[in-house]
Amino acid sequence: MQFLRNIVDKTRRLYHPPGSKLHKLWPLFDANETFLFAPDTKAQRTGPHVRDYADLKRTMVMVIFAMLPCLLFSFYNVGYQHFLAFQGMEPRPSYELGWLQSLLGATPDLANVTFWDRVVFGLQRMIPILIVSYAVGLGIEVGFAILRKEEVSEGYLVTGMLVALIVPASIPLWQLAVGVAFSVVLCKEVFGGTGMNIFNPALMVRAFLFFAYAGQMSGSKVWVAGNHTAGMIDGYSGATPLAAAANAKLTQANLDPTGTVASAQDAIVDATGKVALGWWDLFVGLCPGSAGETSALCCLLGALLLVITGIGSWRIMVAGVVGLFAAGWAMNAGLGHLDGLGSLPPHYHLVMGGFAFGIVFMATDPVSSPETNTGKWVYGILIGVMTVIVRAVNPAYPEGAMLAILLLNAFAPTIDHFVVASNIRRRLARHG
Amino acid sequence: MTTYTIKKGFDIRLTGAAQPRMDQAPEPATVRVSALEFPGLKPKPVVAEGDAVRTGDRLFFDKSDPDTALLSPATGKVTKVELGARRALQWIEIAVDSADRFAEVPTVTVDQLSSLGRDELIRRLKGSGLWPLLRQRPIGRLCDASKTPSAIYVNGMDTEPLAADPAVACLGRGAELQAGIDVLRALTDGKVYLTVAAGRTPPDEFRNLRGVEVRGFAGPHPAGLVGTHISRIAPLGEGEVAWFLKVQEAALIGAWVRDGRYPAVRTVAVAGSRAPTQQYYRVRQGAALSVLTGGNPVTGDVRVINGTVLNGVKVAPDGYLGFYANTVTLIPEGGDTRDMFGWGLPGFGKLSASRSVFSWLTPKPAYDLDARLNGGVRPIVNIGSWDRVMPLDIYPTYLVRAIQAGDVEEALKLGLLEVTEEDVALCTFVDHCKIEVGDIIRKGLDMYEKEA
User: Fold this and answer.
1) ipTM of the complex, rounded to two decimals
2) Which chain A residues touch B305 with a CB distance below 8 Å?
3) Which fold has domain B266-332?
4) Which of B339, B352, B378 faces A52 most closely, judged by CB atoms?
5) Entry pTM
6) Is B132 left (phi over 0), alpha (psi -120 to 50) or beta?
């Protein structure tokens, strides 16, 4: 450790003080140095002379720890879906090895796919996604920090992983790079960087990709990753549970007049298209979807860590679930005669699509959510309600959580405004 | 006794609390009176280097209010009149003689209080050198004598880390305290409140006081701050002011009334993990700090603080006791210490109000903190940590942003006048973005004063 410290102290001279050879790159050095060793900045002459041990790095790292179950699960599920789909294809095409499979010499036995085959495939897709997400995002953040002569903020450490978990594992890497660059520059840095943005940067990546490259971000053909760089198993259709349930109306009314599909739940099937998935299957999350958001169980583990450490707001999470159930029941109770997702019981909404992931990791983003406790309740409930409305009423796109959170991000300052206004009125009443 | 329980807050549990033992500190060779401790006061010195002064002689007065003077805490010779930028007085140093001689100061007796009239009483109080002990809310600066306070708050408790216990500091000074309270009662048409820690029996010195309304406060810091007390007992209306002081300071005013001369002796708790002895001392006001640390200035990796770790001022180890100081805290500076991967380790044994530092699993009764920020300064990322330590009905992040945007009008609406830097010191302590909240609040108050 002392040895490392000596190296750091020696290198430091290149960057500091002002006027040294590489001083322009000081934020880059500082970011790396403080990653290794906490800064030794001291309290000023006045004011508090001692400080809490928590810093923003720790806060952000806790969120990353909270996402780890989802990330680990994605390593498995991406491979699981891949092989499940491959085995279901008729006629079965010849199997092509990807880069990691070739590197490790891990040729899967398609008749008998093992746990490690699935994980190796999952890593093969997820590692490049993580690398691209972090390299592009952090590169831009460091660039802006150097331009602004500020310390590099830790916000993107969380955003980078969020991005990797909410895109389909089949996404072309260049599209991901464009999406990250768009979001970090236009949704974060132009507002002033960490703490100043209005929208959650990770969700903006997804929204950008969704509208710019709809072919690779929606429909039923992208959710199972293939071997080619473009990602898809050609022609294979692995609908997400949400999409399947949304299509239940078509199945019922038009295609199958005898009505073998009794309700929306029954349309939810696994990647082979044959086995029906129940609530518990969806809760565990072995189903097609974005890389890291399919498992409500993993989201729940993350939520526990966020709530215990006080970093994620439990108010937003609880309110979101309350709103989701309220709206789900209202839909069921027959606001109109909605088939498809409108007839889905509310507890299904909880475990399908991106809602669980969104309400735990995205809606609780402290920067783009309301700051007042009352505001958090309103915000969370509205996210739940909007998620169900977008899912049930929007005919084009069954995933409502992303749009619901982005919409409420935009309204967060307004919600806070009304809460703060009532504080001001209370003050006037109290003080005359 | 009405008791208020504060729920939001945090007790910073530090090692090195002062034991309730009182000693007489040695006489200092030199004392200093600083003009920098009284913001808003425009100091004009009346002594020159080489002048002989007695205890209670005028050293400097306020140019905008010549009645207000600061007096010499010792008998001796003026050795230094330090001037700063634009010849503004910084401090005056006096070499102390062995024997005290007392100058005549304006006096008042308890019998005179009812007949004297408020204006005359204030004039004499200003001349006594003790006027700056009284301060006013809002703003938290010296009192504006032209306004009659709606109440006066005498603070008989202190919840700041390692702070001197007012009950210990006032031991055996019941009569002085009573005289001080009598003076305060003549200064307001409203009530004089004595706030005490609930849950423990107040000492006889407090219980036997006449003419005060006693209020109890329970809960974590800031349960002991006057800002909290005012917000619970009687929030200030538009244009109203309240005056406040510590109970030890009221006893000093009482000592002046009873003895008819300037009370130059203070009671100070010396505390903190780096303090050579952790106990109470009776010590001359403005004394060189070395008399509290065994004769020599402390050396090494130590931060010496005039006051508490939350609201004190860092001074050099060979510095001097402040006018208001009733606590001197010595903590490690934290010199060359840098925690490797501090952000990712569980953090057992590290004090935090946040459960993201897992010391809450294995709590210690007290922690030895140094002066490191433990992180880099970042823009506000609000995870509700300020809110959890703010018992006042304000939204601190919104208040801070209004001030940062220069919007005084909005800041006033959000409760700027209900706080001073000491009320938000805990916000600064817990903040994971390491923002100096107190500085921002003071900047807002300064902007307000300039506009008003």
Assistant:
1) 0.93
2) 49
3) Ribosomal Protein L25; Chain P (2.40.240)
4) B352
5) 0.91
6) alpha
